[in-house]
Amino acid sequence: MFEGTRRGFVTRLAGGLAVAGLGDLAPQVAHARPVAPSASADPQFEAWLGKITGKHKMLFDVSEPNGGFGLAWARVFLTTTNETYGTTDADNTAVLVLRHGGIPIGMNSDLWAKYKFGEFFKINDGKTNAPAVRNPFYQVKAGELPLPGMAVDELAAKGVLFGICSFALMVYSGIFAKSMGLQADAVKQEWLAGLLPNVQPVPSGVVAVNRAQEHGCTYCFAG
Fold first, then answer.
1. CATH number at residue 120
2. How far apart, in whole angstroms, are the C-alpha atoms of residue 119 and residue 126?
């Protein structure tokens, strides 16, 4: 179904942009007028950044699924910070930016089944060791993940912030649309509608990584 889909990122990026009708994106970006520093083209993104508060703040850069380790490390960060410094989860902020190959973590199981994310992104079901056909990091049963409290919904309930790269959603939805004979924009809109609760689209993963650090987060590569 997805022959050759694990080739280099540059090839996939170019193909995705072409499918999405954005093959000339680079020249447009180069000549775009910058937004004034006091303005924002994405107020929802700014509101999301405004939730980065607390005494201790860490960003986890999830560029690949990596077995869900970004989720585990966020849980470990909160737990051990609380144990060491006498804080609570509410006193601290963990931010996970899902970008590049990490984006399926933020999408619901219906999308996983329909688009075979487990096969494409090389994510296996922990119980069967076969490509996952549901999101194995969301609403899990006890023992399905190596660390209690690391599922997306459990972390979100503790105040962990999740951002997902809109640019990666555009590129990968274009790749899937081409492979499946679908309309790229329709696939992208379906993916946006299928984001998990509390997962916020951000302009790009790299911008979110940058801005989260400007809001006081230290950095952890988790992909």
1. 3.40.1260.10
2. 14
